[in-house]
Structure formats: structure tokens, C-alpha cells
Amino acid sequence: MEKGNLLTVFWISTFVEMTIEKFYLVFRGNDESNFCHLLRLSELIGHLVLKFAENPQIDSYFHENDRNSNLCHSCAGRNPVFWISTFVEMTIEKCSHARLDRATSLWTPTFVEMTYQKNYFTVEFLTYLDSTTIRYKLHILTRSTHFSCSLIYIILLKIKYILMAQVSSIFYNNEENRIRSFWRVVIQFVFFYYLITEIPPLISDYIASDFYFEFVVELFFLLSAVLTVFLSVKILDKRDFRELGLFINKKWITEFGIGLALGAGVFILIFAIQFSAGWIKIDSFMHNETGLPFVIAIVLRLLGYVAVGITEELFCRGYQLKNIAEGFHSDKTGFNYSIIAAWIITSIIFGLLHAENPSANLLSTFNLFLIGLFFGLTYILTGSLALPIGLHTTWNFFQGNIFSFPVSGFDAFVSFFKTSVTTPGIVSDSRFGPEAGLIIFPGLIAGILFLYYFYKKETVKQFLIRSIALYKSE
């Protein structure tokens, strides 16, 4: 290596070391693009350093102009690197205070390779400026320990920023400017689950009646679901709450009515099958164990199941399914596969959430997974919560308060018919209800056929509602 080149390397490596140290103090190493900008800036000003180093008149120039300057002490006034790096330091500080971070987007260099040649490293970069690819190299002398520290410092900082970017990408989606789907779902689920498991036991001491306690808990679950979902939508999702499918208009009310009819029809069919087989006997009418007038008690149960329908559909389908679908969606997976994956996952969650209910067993949990698929199907076909909420409401109400079947392990305190059931346990569980038996399958099949024939004209060209897996910021 010639003497002139050694001098060049000396200037460049010293400049890079000094500038990076000052740059790091300003930005605290929080932005990889700023670091890349600095490397590009270092390389560019390195050419200026070369001009200083090759001009013998520079030393006398600086010496002449700095005789009366307080900065002229030791060799600082005679060292062009001191002046250039100080200028860069001031510029960076001004950019930082002026919030001119976008300027860094002009330079986006990335490492290509790094080779060792005798006494120096060649670090090769690629940068894209005005759609033009520019390849340039930075030579850093390693003969001296002082200069090799410059290279080590650069490499360590680069590794740090790469790791920070990778770790950050696990939690944060820079393209959408929000945390990733998995963490949104987990955070909302944790807060919701905490509220519904920790608070009700505290309420039970103040409410003696099981009927009233059940109603109050259902209202509390509704409040918890709406609160956690609303906060998650605004803070984590950064979207309009109506995108979940919970809004009121003419079409929404129509679909809600269809859902009510569908849920009622499924359980009328299930009752009819058992009644015709001689497994059900009607003992009495207007059964009431609440101590309240029958009309008031039955209306409270209907309102309670409306609350349950909104709670579980808003949580499982509106928030969880939509966010998981967005998380799976990519150019490779497409819309349908991501929605189907989210549909299956949320149905599994739905089944597991009922696994702790009284008298629950493996068959009841599996059946509730299938029921979750059925409820979820109404959501991914319509993109609205109207039909699943209506379906869920009458599914529970007709099961418990019309035909007096246990609803997912909970007995009905008030019902239009008081029935005695002698159905075999594998067909319908007398303690958990029809949802723990094979009798649920004819109802699910009938419901799916209804959905197919009712929505087939609208879904011939597009089977699923794609907006479920598509994020649109507010």
C-alpha cells in the first residue's frame, strides 16, 4: 500500500470513528436507518478528507485562520478531521432537533461483503439513490490497534442495530405501524380472561340468588368484552370499531333476524327428533323457579342470552378471528387460507373456553369446537356479527328457556316447557345438555345447509368476505 493511500485510510478511519461516536450520543442508537445514513455520509465526506490530506496548503490554512480561536489548542486546529467531524456533529444535532428524520431515507446502504487484505479491511456497501444502484467501498486500516477499533466499533453497532431490528420486528409491524397480530390477540385475551375469572367470585358474596347472579355475571362479561375489545381496537389495532362487524343498519338488523330464526330452527329440529323418538316427555308448561313473574323472568333470560351472544361473538369472531386472519394474511397465503386458519383456531379457543363448564367432557368440548365452526361460518360468510349474535342468542334461549335443556352444563330456572329426558347419554347428555351428544349433528348439518342455500348466490364468485383479513387503518 502506498504512503498516500495509507494517509487516506488514516483520515477516513479516524473520521468514521469520531463521527460515529458523536452520532451515537445524539441518536442513542435507536434508528438503523440513521446509522446507515451516517455510514453513507462518512464515505462521502471521506472523499473530502482525502482532498484535505492531499493538499499541502491545508495545514497552513487552518493554522492561519485559527490563531485567534479558542478551538486552536493542541493539534485540533491543524487537523481537518476535527473540523469536518465537528461540522457533522452540529448538523446531526440540528437534524435531530428539527425532526428531519425523513432525510435519512435518501441513503439506504446495506452491507454486501467484508474482505481482509493484509493490513486493512474492505467493507463494501450497496446504496440506492434516486432509483440508481451505487456500489462503494470503505477501506479501514487494521495495522494500528486504534484504527482497528474503528472497524470493530462499526461492526458491533451494526450487529446491535440488526438485532434490535429483528427483535423489534417480532413485536411490531412497521408497515402497519402497530404491534403484531399475535401480541394484540394475547393482550386482549389476557385482560378479558382476567376480568371474567377474578371479578365474578367477588360478586357472588353479595348476590344470594343463583338466577340474579347468573344475569349479573352475563352483563359483567358483556361489559368486560366491550371494554377490552374497544380499548384493543383503538390502542393496539388502530382501526375503526365498526370494522369488527358490530354496527346497526338495515342490513345488519335483517341478518340479526335471520340469525335468530336459524338458532330457533336448529333446536326445534333437535327437540322434534328426540320427541318423535319418545326420549322426551313434557311434564308442565310455564316452568318458573325464580320467584319472579314468569314474563319478567323469561325476558331477563332472553336479555341475558343476548348479552352472552354479543360477548362471545365479539370476543371470538369479531376480535380474535379478524386479528388472527390479518396475522396469517400474506401474498403467499392469500385471503381464503388466512381466514380459514383463523376460523379453525378461534373455534378451538371457543371449545376450550367451555371445557371448564359443569359436567363438561371430551365429547362436549369437541362438539363445542364444531359449534364454534358453525357460528364462525356465519361471520366469515357475511363479515358481520349480526347473524352470529342472533344465532347464538336463540341457540341458547331455545335450548334452555323454551325446552328446558341444560345449556352447556347450566340448568334453566325458567322455561316454557318442563321436560323429562330419557335420551341415551351418547345422544344427549342429561347434565351438560344436547351439546354433549350426537344429537347436535343433525342440527349443525341442517344449519349449514340453510347457510349454503341462503348465501350461495352471493358467494359463488367469492366464498369468504376478504375484508376480514384486510387491515385498513383509521
Structure description:
This protein has helices at 3-27, 32-54, 57-65, 80-98, 145-171, 181-198, 200-204, 210-237, 250-276, 294-328, 334-353, 362-382, 386-402, 440-455; strands spanning 110-117, 120-129, 132-141, 172-173, 178-179, 280-288, 414-421. It is mostly helical and 474 residues long. It has 2 domains: 3-172, no CATH class; 244-469, no CATH class. The strands form 3 sheets. The protein has a 3-stranded antiparallel sheet with strand order 1-2-3. It has a two-stranded antiparallel sheet with strand order 4-5. Helix 1 packs antiparallel against helix 2, helix 1 (3-27) runs parallel beside helix 5 and helix 12 packs parallel to helix 14. The longest helix is centred in the middle third of the chain and has 35 residues, at 294-328. It is globular and about 70 Å long. Mean pLDDT is 75; it is low at 1-12, 23-32, 47-116 and 123-151.
